[in-house]
Specification:
- With about 300 residues, the protein is α/β, with parallel strands linked by helices.
- The chain folds into two domains: about 210 residues, Spore Coat Polysaccharide Biosynthesis Protein SpsA, Chain A (Alpha-Beta Complex); about 60 residues.
- It is built from ten helices and eight strands.
- It has an eight-stranded mixed sheet, sandwiched between helices.
- The longest helix has 30 residues.
- It is elongated and about 75 Å long.
- It starts with a strand and ends with a strand.
C-alpha cells in the first residue's frame, strides 16, 4: 500500500533554505514508497518572504504544494497546527525549514506509523541543541505532560497519524499552545526513533534563551490541565489540614490545620481562577489565514 504523506513546514522570515529543501523533498517523493505533498505556513513574515514563497510555488508547480499566510506572527506551534488542519495525507510530517531535519529521513519516520501502532513518532537526536535548550525542553515536558506518560523526548521533526487529528485536533485547535502537550495527552502511543541532525546552513535560530524560557513558562500556564492539577493539590492540602485538626495535640494546637487548610484553599482558588482565565483567553483567540496558494 502506498501512503500519502503531508509535510508541514512553518516559515518565519526565513525562506533561504526552501529551494534546496523542496528539491530534496521532490526526490524523496519520487524515490520512496510515499507520495508527498507539502504545506508551507508563512507565520506572519514580511512581504518579501511571502513574495519568495509565491515564486517557489510557481517554480515547483509540478509538486503538490499549499502555501498559507497567517494574519500575524503566532509562533511555531500555532503555525504548525494551522498546517495540520489543511494537510490531507494519511500521515503528517512536521519539520523545520532550515535543513537541520534531513528530508531523506522522512520514509524512516513514516515507517514508524505505517508498520506500528503508534499515533505519533518523534525523530530525536542526541546533542542536537545546547545544554540550556535541552534543560528547558525537559522542564517543559515535566510541566505539561500527563501523569504516567513516558515523556518521550519531543522534537519539531515528528510524524502524526491523521486520524488522531481528524478526531481530536479540529475541535481543540484554537486552545492548543504547545502541540507536544496536546499529543502527549491525546495519542494512545508515542514512540521515537534516533535521527541525524544537521547544522543550519542559513541564518541563525530565532530561539534565544529568553524566548525559550518564555515559551516554556507560557506552555505551562496555557495548559488546560494546570487548573485541574492545582485544584487536586489544594484539596489534598485541605484534607491533610482537616485530618491534623481532628488529631491535634495540645502542643501544636490548631497550627497544622491553619497552615494546610490555608495553603490548600489558596491552591483551589488559584486553580479556579486559572480555569476561568484559560477559557476566556481561548474564547478570544483567533488565527486567520489571509492568503492561500495551491499548485494542485
Amino acid at each position: 500500500m502506498k501512503y500519502n504523506v503531508s509535510v508541514v513546514i512553518p516559515v518565519f522570515n526565513d525562506a533561504d533554505a526552501l529551494p534546496e529543501l523542496l528539491s530534496r523533498l521532490r526526490r524523496v517523493s519520487a524515490g520512496s514508497g510515499y507520495l508527498l505533498d507539502v504545506v508551507l505556513v508563512d507565520d506572519g513574515s514580511g512581504d518579501k518572504v511571502w513574495s519568495e514563497l509565491e515564486g517557489l510555488a510557481r517554480q515547483f508547480g509540478d509538486m503538490d504544494i499549499a502555501v498559507l499566510r497567517l494574519d500575524k506572527n503566532h509562533g511555531q506551534h500555532p503555525a504548525t497546527i494551522q498546517g495540520l488542519l489543511v494537510a490531507k495525507g494519511d500521515f503528517i510530517i512536521t519539520m523545520d525549514a532550515d535543513l537541520q531535519h534531513p528530508p531523506e529521513f522522512i520514509p524512516i519516520l513514516a515507517n514508524q506509523l505505517a508498520h506500528g501502532n503508534a499515533d505519533v513518532a518523534y525523530a530525536t537526536s542526541r546533542g542536537a541543541h545546547g545544554l540550556f535548550r535541552r534543560l528547558i525542553g525537559t522542564a517543559r515536558r515535566l510541566l505539561v505532560a500527563p501523569l504516567g506518560t513516558s515523556l518521550v523526548k519531543a522534537s519539531s521533526f515528528r510524524v502524526i497519524r491523521s486520524s488522531l487529528l481528524d478526531s481530536k485536533m479540529r475541535a481543540a485547535a484554537s486552545g492548543v499552545v504547545n502541540l507536544d502537550e496536546f499529543l502527549s495527552w491525546e495519542a494512545n502511543k508515542v514512540s521515537s526513533v534516533p535521527a541525524p541532525h544537521h547544522p543550519r546552513k542559513y541564518n541563525v535560530s530565532s530561539y534565544t534563551p529568553g524566548r525559550l524560557l518564555a515559551f516554556a513558562l507560557w506552555s505551562a500556564w496555557s495548559t488546560r490541565h494546570l487548573s485541574r492539577a492545582v485544584c487536586i493539590l489544594g484539596v489534598g492540602f485541605v484534607v491533610i489540614g482537616i485530618s491534623a485538626y481532628m488529631v491535634r495535640s495540645s502542643v501544636w494546637g490548631s497550627l497544622p490545620f491553619s497552615l494546610f487548610f490555608g495553603v490548600g484553599s489558596s491552591f483551589i482558588i488559584f486553580g479556579l481562577l486559572h480555569r476561568f482565565a484559560w477559557r476566556y483567553h481561548n474564547s478570544k483567540k483567533n488565527i486567520h489565514v489571509i492568503k492561500t496558494i495551491k499548485t494542485r
